Structure formats: C-alpha cells, structure tokens
Fold:
Amino acid sequence: MAQALLLEGKPVADKVMEELKTSIDALLPRMGRPPGLAVVLVGEDPASQVYVRIKGRSAKRLGIQTFDHHLPEGTRQEDVVSLIEQLNHDDKVDGMLVQLPLPGHLNEEEVLRKVSPKKDADVFHPENFGKLALKQGTLKPCTPAGVLEILKFYDIGLEGKKAALIGRSKIVGLPLAILMMHENATITVCHSRTRDIPAITREADIVVAAMGRPKFLTADMVREGAVVVDVGINRVDGELVGDCDFEPLLEKVSAITPVPGGVGPMTVAMLMANTVRAYSLKSQEARIST
Structure:
C-alpha cells in the first residue's frame, strides 16, 4: 500500500485565514473598527504563554485588535470574574478567551460561565454547548471545528462513515462527536471505561485520538486504509508527539494528521473564525437597529 496522505493543517489554516481577512475587509467600513479579541491569562504556565503568543500573532496577521490581560498566579476568583464582566460590556471586544488551565484555587467552571455567550470564542459556555447540540449555534468549538475543516479540505467525507473517537473531553471528544453526527457519520465514543477499544477502532473508517496519552493508538488498532486524526500533543523527552504511533500507522492508513503540524494550526485559525463571526453578528445587529 502507498504511504498515507499527510493531512497537514497549515494549508487549511492559511485558506481559512485568507477567507477571514476578506470578511474583515468587507465589514470594516461598516463597523468603523477592527474585530477585537480579549485574552485572559492567569499565572505563569509556560505552555499557556506560548499558546497566547501564537494566538496574538495570528490575530495581528488578520488585523484583529487584541486586548491581553495577564493576571498574577494568586489572583482572586472575584477579581477574575470582575475583569470578565468588564470585558463583556466592552463594545470593542467581540471575542474573549480565558486561557486554560487556570490555577488550582480558581473555579474554572464558574469563570467560564461568566463569559458572555456572544463573546465565547472558545465555545465553553453551557448555552453555546446546548446550541451546538441542537445545531443552532453560530460559534463552533475550535479544535473540533478544525478537525472537520481538515477532513473537508482533503475531501474526506463523513456521511455514512463509521467514526471512532477516543476521548470524551468537553473540549474535543464530546463536541466533535456532535459535529460529526451533524455530518451524518455514525459515532462511537471510547473512553477510559470502554471495554476492548481496539475492537471498536478496527471497525472504523475514521479514528480520532484525543485522550492525551502518547502513542496510544497503534497500527494493530486500525484497519488498513482507515483515516486517522491525531489531536494529542504530548511532550516526551523534549519532543512533541501525538496520541498515535505515527510511523507504523503511516504504512497502514490512507491518511493521517502529523504532530506537530496537523490539528494544532487549525485550533488557532478557528478561534480567529469565531472572533470574526461574533464581529459579523454584531455588525448585523447594528444594521437591524438602525
């Protein structure tokens, strides 16, 4: 069998960014200001600081104005909530993200609930999650939406396909299962209590690994010609590796995302897309009210 098609994220992200730039250029005269993205970072987590810098560079590339709020590690819950409420009422802010993880003394769920659903760029608010399930929302969870964009870009259809998702987190597995069902795929979600995961993944046309365990998905766990999407990012001996045992899988599957360079670029691109969608919705509301 020929070596697998590499599902690289960069060309997909570049296409999304080009489309977003066109949308911003069209909306700018009407809005009189660029889109605004507020980023709340609490503490000194090195990985979070890297992610925030990457997001900032992508925003700058599109002409999105960023409002960065870096709070000390020991910031009190009420002070984080107060900042979020202030940003909720700031007309220059269209999208907002609270960088996770938060320091342990903060109630993450309560903090995320305080973000206005209209500005919820990460789509963590329960209201937006409910709308997602009912196929009513305009904002889409960044990493799951990025996975779908990759499959669409490389012409990998979902309708009628069997898909196995390993991982049920509220950030990836659960919302991705919902989005894939909306595309008429048949979904099995595996997790730490699932019996005989390999028996399930061997039956799947598409396997998504998103559990945060390095090289968990091995070549003997998939059928020949399957499509594999690796959402995992793990640091092992100073090297970034995914949740898939990449090299052996490369010889067996028809297509696979690399790590790094696969889903990662899409997560940031879809965050920008949510910010521009929120900006566009505000433009529509302004036009209706005048």
Q: What stands out?
A: The radius of gyration is 19 Å. The chain has a mean pLDDT of 95. The first strand starts at residue 5 and ends at 6. Residues 264-289 form the longest helix (26 residues).
